[in-house]
Design brief:
With 521 residues, the protein is mostly helical. The protein is 70% helix and 0% strand. The chain is built from 27 helices and no strands. It is globular.
């Protein structure tokens, strides 16, 4: 995974100042790297590249070398108030994902005997490798980034300085090496606490939380993110706190806790939109859409994710919206818009080929299965499951089993469907994905096999489609609104609702809402 949400520019700059030795060239160079991080957080790839290259101009960047100067694009006071004088509630976020940058190999060769005088990146191997790796990734050349970023990790193993450990954690996430990210993040956290540096502590907890999420350890991710919110707020860094709230929303979206997702996503989005933090905003929106899918609301997820993955100002940078593509494809297909899902499949294939996301190849095969003709679907789902077995991840594997089992059931392959849906239920229960597990149970019921842990009566008698309609009606939706959300006709909703009333013995929407409330307690 690419670098996680990195917090506000002032936090980055003050962190750099607190961690560096006294000589001005070192302070200036790490301040430049911190400013590049801040530009990355806003989604401004052009600004990030120019900062890394040392080609930023006073008119564009305001000069990042001085520690007292904050990038205009991402600056914020510690209390969250804008310092730019522009309307921060609606910041511009240009689509800069197609920036072309010369490869790092085009730099003139170093003179014999090693790098000579010049900027610090040319003299310090660690900084040079981090810069070159970031630059290659921003230019969409992950093959050229792997070598420099691996060297960053190697050098950090013998260097206990907090700033270097934080860079190593970032490099590991950029490489998709979750184990190394968790290890570097843990060392950075210990070093930050020893140095009594709250800003570094909040940053280390951020990398740890995202690393645990990528490893499928949702409870640990939630713990780190909760600690990160406290550390960031104690230090006065509300943008950093917002990125932790986005992480908490992601963890809750796996568990299917809609209310918790909405609460954390709202906090994250309020700050992200005010200060142009495209990365934090995208993660929060993705978490909300994934919660919609967990609750059987594909049309809601489709509407939310469309602006994030399609061209336009809300797209942010490709390293984040690529992560939401599998959810978008699933939502588009289930909502009845397969043509929209097809248009982004090439992007997902390119992302999978990059090799920085271990789950992407299996997700790509799953998305292709969703869009394939019937004679190819089974082979593609089996291919996806084989890739899941190679890369790990209970949650993503269970999602593939659920979709495959649903497809088999609807084609009356009931015995095989039961096996797939049972595997999905076990996987979801293992990782605490409650709402997703409910979907698997509903499909098993419709397949003729009730879960042994399930209560016998009430809503358990309904089909998955009826359950979705019941939940919307219980929330106050009209039949027309339900039809729009499920991408079906109003007549279909009327038909299912009459059957639901008969099966449950209720006579009104109010009685139905009361029954849903009782059984959800």
């Amino acid at each position: 995974m690419f670098d996680g949400p990195v917090g506000d520019a002032r936090a980055s700059l003050l962190l750099a100042a607190s961690l560096l030795a006294a000589d001005a060239p070192d302070r200036a160079e790490v301040a430049r790297l911190s400013a590049a991080d801040a530009a990355w957080a806003t989604g401004d790839v052009t600004l990030c590249l120019s900062t890394l290259d040392g080609t930023d101009t006073p008119g564009r960047a305001g000069g990042y070398a001085g520690l007292g100067t904050v990038p205009a694009k991402a600056s914020a006071d510690q209390d969250g108030a804008s310092t730019t004088g522009r309307d921060t509630d609606h910041p511009p976020s240009p689509d800069t994902t197609d920036v072309t940058v010369p490869p790092t190999e085009s730099r003139p060769p170093e003179p014999p005997g090693g790098p000579g005088p010049g900027p610090r990146w040319a003299r310090d191997a660690f900084v040079r490798d981090y810069r070159d790796g970031m630059r290659a990734l921003l230019a969409r050349h992950p093959d050229r980034a792997a070598g420099p970023l691996r060297r960053v990790l190697d050098q950090a193993r013998t260097d206990g300085r907090t700033d270097r450990l934080l860079r190593a954690a970032a490099a590991a996430l950029l490489l998709g090496d979750v184990h190394a990210a968790r290890a570097a993040g843990a060392r950075a956290l210990a070093a930050a606490r020893d140095a009594d540096c709250p800003a570094a502590e909040a940053r280390a907890l951020e990398y740890l939380a995202y690393g645990e999420l990528r490893a499928g350890c949702h409870a640990q991710a939630r713990t780190h993110a909760e600690e990160g919110v406290r550390a960031a707020l104690a230090a006065g860094y509300r943008n950093t706190a917002a990125s932790h709230h986005a992480m908490l929303a992601l963890a809750a979206s796996i568990e299917g806790d809609t209310a918790t997702v909405a609460r954390h996503a709202s906090v994250a989005l309020t700050t992200a939109r005010r200060h142009g933090l495209a990365q934090t905003a995208t993660l929060a929106e993705w978490a909300t859409a994934r919660a919609d899918l967990a609750r059987g609301r594909p049309l809601d997820a489709y509407d939310r994710l469309g602006p994030l993955v399609g061209p336009g100002p809300r797209r942010g940078h490709f390293a984040v919206w690529m992560l939401a593509l599998p959810c978008y494809v699933e939502a588009a297909v289930l909502a009845g818009h397969p043509q929209d899902a097809s248009t982004v499949l090439a992007d997902l294939a390119q992302w999978a080929a990059f090799g920085v996301d271990p789950h992407a190849p299996a997700q790509l095969a799953r998305c292709r299965a969703l869009l394939a003709p019937d004679d190819r679907v089974g082979d593609l789902y089996l291919r996806a499951l084989a890739l899941h077995d190679e890369r790990g991840g209970d949650f993503e594997r269970a999602r593939t089993e659920l979709l495959y089992g649903r497809w088999l059931r609807r084609r009356r392959h009931l015995r095989e469907a039961r096996s797939r849906l049972g595997a999905a239920l076990v996987g979801f229960e293992r990782c605490g994905a409650g709402a997703w597990a409910d979907q698997a149970r509903g499909e098993l019921r419709a397949n003729g096999a009730a879960s042994v842990t399930e209560a016998a009566g009430g809503l358990s008698r309904l089909t998955p489609q009826q359950l979705r309609i019941v939940r919307y009606v219980a929330e106050g939706a009209t039949n027309r609104e339900v039809a729009q959300r499920l991408a079906v006709s109003t007549r279909t909703v009327d038909y299912h609702l009459r059957n639901v009333f008969a099966a449950l013995g209720v006579r009104s929407r109010m009685e139905l809402a009361r029954l849903v409330d009782q059984e959800s307690r």
